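Much of our argument rests on the idea that a fold can be written as discrete symbols. The amino acid sequence and the backbone structure tokens for this protein are reproduced below:

___
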Amino acid sequence: MPEYHVIPNEEEVKRLKKEYGLTKDQIAKDVATVRSWMLTQPHLPKLPESKNDEIDFWIEGFLRLTKNNLEKTKLGVESHFRLKTLFPQVYDVSDLPNYVESDLFEYLTMVMMPKHTPDGLKIMYYNFNDTNSHLFRPIEIYKRMRLMLDIYQKKGIDFTGIHVLIDTRHITLSHISQFDLFQLKNLIKHAQKAYPLRLKHTHILFPPSFIDVAKNILKPFVSKKMFARLSFHKNLESLWEHIPRDVLPIEYGGCNGNVDMIREEWKTLILKNNDWFLSNVSYKSDESKRPKKKKSFSYDKMSFKTLILD
């Protein structure tokens, strides 16, 4: 069985390097700069020398994600370790072999599609297997997403943005009611920094009758920018206006494999990286050691009552 998702796609990597001016010498220089900066941050974990090559490649992935922006790369690296501290349940890998064979895993299909769009973006797809919500856990969405994105970081980033495609035919109000909206907002805020992807668009396919209710519930917790990038498709024809058919799987009128095959390949890839996940789970930030930001002094806020005259 071919592994559609095995990465990196060398042609896409070359395209990104050329677009962002990432030469071999420049990458080595920028990676060294970030590594040196990491050593000055007391709250970041101290990584063993055995992981030097892995960390260098990992940082290079952030450079691609941030279009070779050093400051955004530093923010991404720091946010990654902080996210692991703030949301340990998202990074739980205590028993991946049993997890990927569980009913919980099977209930939610979440994959990155194999091919890129013509402008170099990937398709992140998910749906629920049926309308019964007893196996639904909102945290599963975040956990599965991060497993895939961390594998891309390990294997090689060959894209900088995504289309999110959600088939909502099996979503009910019971699913929506299980979301902790404040947790969702907090997680999105930190995850956007830890995984600095460009969200091109979110496509809601076959929206349910209560979609307006769901939109009103979620709107206060999602940024205006993200909300503006939502599209609703009652049929496949309108989806094809945004995403070329040859990038989509057979179930959605495309020719890029089928969802079940791609899902099984992702299960295999997660299992193949089990030891790597386990070796990295303990590396997280120590927030008690985070340097406190210096408060800036503003003359605009100073009044005569705050002055002490000799």
Summary: Residues 297-310 have pLDDT under 50 and may be disordered. Residues 138-155 form the longest helix (18 residues).
